[in-house]
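**Backbone shape codes:**
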Amino acid sequence: MPETDPGHRRFSRRALLGTGGLAALAAGGAAGAAALGGGGEAAAAPAVPFHGPQQAGILTPRQNHVRLAAFDLGRARTDRGRAAALLLRWTTAAEHLTRGAPVPAGLEPPGSRAADTGALADTRPARLTLTFGLGATFFDRTGLTAARPEALAPLPAFPDDRLDPARGDGDLLVQIGADDAFVTAQGLRTLQRLAHGEATLRWTMTGFTAADGRRNLMGQVDGTNNPDPARALVSAPDAPPWLAGGSYVVVRRIRMLLDHWDTLPPDHREQALGRRACDGAPLTGGGERTPVDLAATRPDGVPVIATNAHVRLAAPASNNGATMVRRSWSYHDGHRADGAPDAGLLFTAWQPDPRTGFVPVQQRLSRGDALARYLVHEASAVFAVPGGIRPGTYVAQSLLEP
């Protein structure tokens, strides 16, 4: 095994987890099998495989609820071994939680007085996924600045951004999706407990989908022009070895000015988007999945899809073919001091490189998108998301143990 930076100590599972955690990890498979096989209901619960070529939660069909959370490591400079131990604990917990098994005892870090309360004991996995990412500052904190990919550069400032730094960036990202909000909440609580003394919660955002998973709070059918997730290129083709099979995700909290939007005539709302509200079909005709005809004009020569319509400015044809796999959720966090709803979209976009995906598209949208006057971008972050996790390994292991 390779050496850590301080003192040239060698990594080992025993050193990372501690004696109790090592035993728990070894026994985890049996414990999980007992939990799944003995109760009947748990065995029939829907579960998304944790292991695979990509991390679950990227190409997984979108769940009904999400918790997005960023953590900061507790020290300005963190030993790589400590970071590895944290990610090993999180990986071990995620393996068990996603199949409905109890988190093994003994995973808690030294000094922690908290323990699993068993709150998920009678709960199905509900298609739970936990997806982990690394922020740019993670590499600085762990002495791995030289390994930080160039694509993990800070996003440029966009003209209409009103970003709150306290709700952006972070050393570590976790996306927790499930069809049960209770499961996502307890999943986050578990990660917080296992991060005791090593990482603290920087920000968290909670989202949901409509019953049919299609409409956002503006009433629009959302995500229609997404590329086919099963075929979309979400892996970085020129990625370093530790990022093989991985991607990048841009996270944006976008508040919708719903009180203003709701006063617009229906045809104005459709023109701003470029699609019909009733079914999401383009204004150029057909059904929801019909390609938008950006060249179509009315008899008077005016484009059917307005020159500032969202679908025109965001289209791959308008952005040198740039595409992103979008998995977004609505949020509603009550009301602001002026009485306006604090509600909108938790936008997540997965791509091979933000510099050729999200950035050029957002730059084009910021220069005249008709929807922009009804949106406020309030939080932003970008993370590198390591590839899938094989049994017996932990997230980002090949980075921390090259």
